[in-house]
Specification:
The chain is of the alpha+beta class. Helix content is about 25%, strand content about 20%. The strands form five sheets. Strands 1, 2, 4 and 5 form a four-stranded antiparallel β-sheet that branches. It has a three-stranded antiparallel β-sheet with strand order 3-12-11, with no helix packed on it. The longest helix is centred in the N-terminal third of the chain and has 24 residues. It is globular, with a radius of gyration of 20 Å. Bound molecules: 2-amino-4-trifluoromethylsulfanyl-butyric acid and cobalt (II) ion (2 copies).
Length: about 290
């Protein structure tokens, strides 16, 4: 979304070539970010996405959503988390894509499945899904080199009152976070909207994991904390693509990491829920690359 950027003829070309704009991309159709896709609005080295990039991420996003739907269909009492992983792995590969988590920093599986007190990064394995569980499934696909990251928390069978409460608060947190995404607002506005709502509902916001730039890689700058102050942090500009993925606990916000070095659980054993979408900042607001109704 940087095709219509304003730059002087004698200024350095935004494509990063080092030449003057008039000697470089000015004569071409748009700014060629293929050479060096590092046009950043600031010192944070945020890589803005152009129209082709956005289309690529959108297509990866559609596949990520299909995979989430497929997982939901099979999410029944008695199924092992490893069975869901296998199913989704095969679906992604069959669609000429790659599951981003597999071998990412040593992560051993293709998706994350986080049940009840598991905040995030639950590794699929022998654990069996039971009636009444809440289960977050987090899927990132890489299609034609582009990444799209999304997750949902599902009820298994009939939810109890605590399950209903935490899932509803987490869902509303993502909704309120997304409502802040528009040019001129800041990363702090997103965190503020989420934190004030979650804490107002008597819940807590996990600090150790944050949303993130995404698209060319799994995790890019900027970080998107789900807490913060209005007006703080990086300003949002068109062409930024990042996730918002609040992890909300029914009890305290503290967490422990299990011996597998991945699984994050609430220290007090309380329920935790999460929803995640990949968002593009547009000229007048935002567009979800992994849109589902919240
Ligand atoms: N999908 C997670 C996120 O939302 C990251 C998982 S990292 C993994 O950022 F290695 F556990 F897959
Ligand atoms: Co993410
Ligand atoms: Co994710």
């Amino acid at each position: 979304m940087v095709d219509d950027i304003k730059v002087g003829r004698n200024e350095p070309c935004p494509c990063g070539s080092g030449r003057k704009y008039k000697k470089c991309c000015l004569s071409k159709k748009g700014i060629n970010l293929g050479k060096k896709r590092e046009l950043s609005t600031d010192k944070f080295r945020i890589q803005l996405k152009n129209k082709d990039d956005v289309q690529g991420i959108r297509e990866a996003g559609a596949l990520t959503l299909e995979a989430l739907d497929l997982a939901e269909v099979h999410l029944k009492p008695g199924i092992k988390t490893a069975d869901i992983d296998k199913l989704i792995h095969e679906f992604i590969v069959k669609n000429n894509a790659i599951p981003a988590p597999l071998n990412y920093k040593g992560y051993p599986k293709s998706i994350c499945v986080s049940i009840n007190e598991v905040i995030c990064h639950g590794i699929p394995g022998k654990r069996i899904i039971h009636e009444g569980d809440i289960v977050n499934i987090d899927i990132t696909t890489i299609l034609n080199g582009y990444y799209a990251d999304a997750s949902k928390t599902f009820f298994v069978g009939k939810p109890g009152p605590d399950a209903k409460k935490i899932v509803s608060v987490a869902r509303e947190c993502l909704k309120r976070g997304i409502s802040m995404v528009q040019p001129g607002n800041t990363v702090g506005d997103i965190g503020w909207a989420i934190q004030t709502y979650a804490e107002g509902e008597g819940c807590s916001v996990v600090r150790e994991f944050v949303g993130h730039g995404v698209g060319f890689k799994f995790h890019e700058p900027p970080q998107i904390p789900h807490y913060g102050k209005k007006g703080d942090g990086v300003k949002l500009v068109p062409g930024m693509v990042f996730t918002i993925e609040p992890m909300i606990n029914l009890g305290e916000r503290d967490l422990n990491i299990l011996d597998d070095n991945w699984t994050a659980i609430t220290s007090d054993g309380s329920l935790s829920a999460q929803f995640e979408q990949t968002l593009l900042v547009t000229d007048n607001g935002c567009e979800s690359m992994t849109h589902y109704t919240l």
